[in-house]
Amino acid sequence: MNALEHFFNSYITSDHLIQGMTISTIFQLVRLVLDEQYFIYNYKLYRQTAGCASGSSLTMPLVYIYLFYWRQDLLEDLINKNELFFRYRDEAFITWNRSEDELRTLLTMANSQFSQPIWNVTHIGATIHFRDIMITNNNGLLQTSVYHEETFEHSLLPPSFRDILQPAIKQDTWKWLRAAILKAIRYCSDGNIYYEEKNEINWQLKQHQLPDIIFNQAYQE
What we know:
Radius of gyration: 24 Å
Number of helices: 11
Strand order of the largest sheet: 5-6-7
Distance between the termini: 50 Å
Helix content: 40-55%
Shape: extended
Mean pLDDT: 79
Low-confidence stretches: 152-166
Strand content: 15-25%
Structural class: alpha+beta
Protein name: Reverse transcriptase domain-containing protein
């Protein structure tokens, strides 16, 4: 609630109306919802006294606002040391040029503030993928490229499985190809990586028995 109040005060004036309601009214309604949450389990009625239901449409906006304001001192420290911090919904990654032990100590300290850990470390290394982008620290040089899910694109998969796992190519080849080329342009940080991604796109087209001329036409567009 403190983060929500901070959000309102930072971006909206106290006399501003949202769908006819004042900020004070919205704040009171949110508190009412959080204080009066009930659910049924095994034919018994329970009241939820901490947190909020994961299926509620109110939950995720509150979580995102909270994560935005969470540990501003930590974020400022990262920025001051020329580190990067990016978050999309409940996923995030940071760059870190100190020891791994220091990083794990920091994350442990961050999680200790909550009854349940909110930061689950999935990977620490010189190369990670964040959503559909691959990020690599190549001897101090930050490089980016398109991330490809191996399960979906393994060359040993039979054609029938490829059709199931990646139907967009066959459903609308032109749309898929245009999106793939635009993604390569946006994500690839240098010419060599971009050239490799072009080869990857061509390879995927060949896996679906599509002629090279389709790629050439889309690329010229």
